[in-house]
Automatic annotation (TrEMBL):
GO cellular component, one term: cytosol
SUPFAM superfamilies per UniProt: L-aspartase-like
Residue ranges crossing the lipid bilayer per the database entry: none
Top-level class of the enzyme under EC nomenclature: lyase
PANTHER family to which the protein is assigned, alphabetical: ARGININOSUCCINATE LYASE
Domain Fumarate lyase N-terminal: 9-302
Entry EC no(s): 4.3.2.1
Pathway involvement of the protein, from the record: Amino-acid biosynthesis; L-arginine biosynthesis; L-arginine from L-ornithine and carbamoyl phosphate: step 3/3
Domain Argininosuccinate lyase C-terminal: from-to ranges: 365-433
UniProt protein name: Argininosuccinate lyase
Source organism of this protein record: Methylomicrobium album BG8
Classification via PROSITE patterns: FUMARATE_LYASES
Domain of life assignment: Bacteria
GO molecular function, one term: argininosuccinate lyase activity
């Protein structure tokens, strides 16, 4: 079928370039399965309400099922003459079953059809994303567990701040991903509303049963306003916003992995399988996977901005502009799934270089706050303690020693409140072990956080 879409109204054929320019089938054919699923539900509803006969509905369902098979096997011939996924499938259906195929579009428009397809598509992709998130979160927990007591420096301003454990740091990543998961789930509530029945924009005069179609497709309810149904892409923007946040998180993990695997930090080993060499420098092992993921976060945020710009000046209801929603959305889905997969595969093989982490924590006066807290416990006001410890740090700096390497006599110069038991507070182990409150870095507390996290994940 090479005839122009709604050709009767036109005196001229479409310009050859315009035909190519306006066609979307090359990319929207990705939603073929959802398009067919939506059409079958629509046909069933039309039969149930007496708008089509049961025989017509059966022929439509059988024809669409055959088309689904042709598409899956790669036998379907897509044509840009048919513009998009919807018209390609409808034209093929009519080739296969004749007049009943021409009745499928009764009480429907591509405007409510495409909005339905995208929602069905995103609903299923969110399921995939959740699975990948699960794998990555599990990998993080599995790495955190044996490292619940692995001491490393914690940073602020990228300067050594206070000792923490590697397990605690990993659990921070876990929390970030947990929020991402919640955001996708929340977004799913608004995705899972059915536009079908809105038709072009004003609804339809046929006695349709939207609740039935919604039920058949597993939507929680039909949308409430026909204009809004065909013009709304908020759900796609929300999805892309959730994806942008997730990618921003992955980018921050990447940044840390890249720094930590450098010779200057030397905290971790990223497995060879996730790195590549240099074409010129024989010694190089580059952290390509984290770098690429960091780069791809920009791409997804770009898609978010594209979608916002796409929608911002459109009058109600449907406009052809909306066809531009698909490529950013599809690329967002692919990028997120691929990046999560790469991370879920890589994280279990990251090796912590515990000695190096420990030595680094020892070198940065990481327990200075603990010394101040010691003085406070002995009755000094915190601000005075801060001052006294500052002087002790200065002595350490000028003599090239950590606070724990100063003698008791030297320490007592800064306050007579200091006794021999001070050295317990100056050890890295003592520092982390003392932080036992909810959310703290004490190894026992981190193990507890891991247990709680596993329970939350098992509960879904
Ligand atoms: N390919 C179109 C899209 O992606 C389908 C809807 C077309 N509707 C229309 N009135 N031209 O948005």
């Amino acid at each position: 079928n090479t005839e122009k879409l709604s050709s009767a109204r036109f005196a001229e054929a479409t310009d050859a370039f315009v035909e190519v320019f306006t066609a979307s089938v090359d990319f929207d054919k990705r939603m073929a399965a959802q398009d067919i699923q939506g059409s079958i539900a629509h046909a069933k509803m039309l039969a149930k309400t007496g708008i089509l006969t049961d025989d017509e509905c059966a022929a439509i369902e059988q024809g669409l099922t055959q088309i689904a098979g042709e598409i899956e096997r790669g036998e379907f011939s897509w044509s840009i003459k048919q513009e998009d996924v919807h018209m390609n499938i409808e034209a093929r259906l009519t080739d296969l079953i004749g007049i009943a195929g021409k009745k499928l579009h009764t009480g429907r428009s591509r405007n409510d059809q495409v909005a339905t397809d995208i929602r069905l598509y995103l609903r299923s992709e969110i399921g995939q994303i959740e699975n990948q998130l699960n794998c990555l979160q599990t990998a993080i927990l599995d790495l955190a567990e044996p490292n619940a007591g692995t001491i490393m420096p914690g940073f602020t301003h990228l300067q050594v701040a206070q000792p923490i454990t590697f397990g605690h740091h990993l659990m921070a990543w876990f929390e970030m991903l947990q929020r991402d998961r919640e955001r996708f789930r929340d977004c799913l509530k608004r995705i899972n509303v059915m536009p079908l029945g809105a038709a072009a924009l004003a609804g339809t005069g046929y006695p349709i049963d939207r609740a039935l179609t919604a039920e058949l497709l597993g939507f929680s309810r039909p949308s409430a306003n026909s204009l809004d149904s065909v013009s709304d892409r908020d759900f796609a923007i929300e999805f892309t916003a959730a994806a942008s946040l997730l990618m921003m998180h992955l980018s921050r993990f990447s940044e840390e992995l890249i720094l930590w695997s450098s010779a200057q930090f030397n905290f971790i080993e990223i497995p060879d399988a996730f790195c590549t060499g240099s074409s010129i420098m024989p010694q190089k092992k580059n952290p390509d996977v984290p770098e690429l993921v960091r780069g791809k976060s920009g791409r997804v945020t770009g898609h978010l901005v594209s979608l916002l710009m796409l929608m911002k000046s459109q009058p109600l209801a449907y406009n052809k502009d909306n066809q531009e929603d698909k490529e950013p959305l599809f690329d967002t889905v692919d990028t997120v799934i691929n990046c999560l997969r790469a991370y879920a595969d890589m994280v279990p093989h990251i090796r912590a270089k515990k000695d190096n982490m420990y030595q680094s924590a020892k070198q940065g006066f990481a327990t200075a706050t603990d010394l101040a807290d010691y003085l406070v416990r002995r009755g000094m006001a915190f601000r005075d303690a801060h001052e006294a410890v500052g002087l002790a740090v200065r002595l350490g700096l000028t003599t090239g020693r950590d606070l724990s390497e100063l003698t008791l006599a030297e320490l007592r110069q800064f306050s007579p409140l200091i006794d021999a038991d001070v050295f317990e507070s100056l050890t890295l182990e003592g520092s982390v072990a003392s932080r036992q409150h909810i959310g703290g870095t004490a190894p026992e507390t981190v193990r507890e956080a891991i247990r709680t996290a596993r329970q939350a994940m098992a509960a879904g």
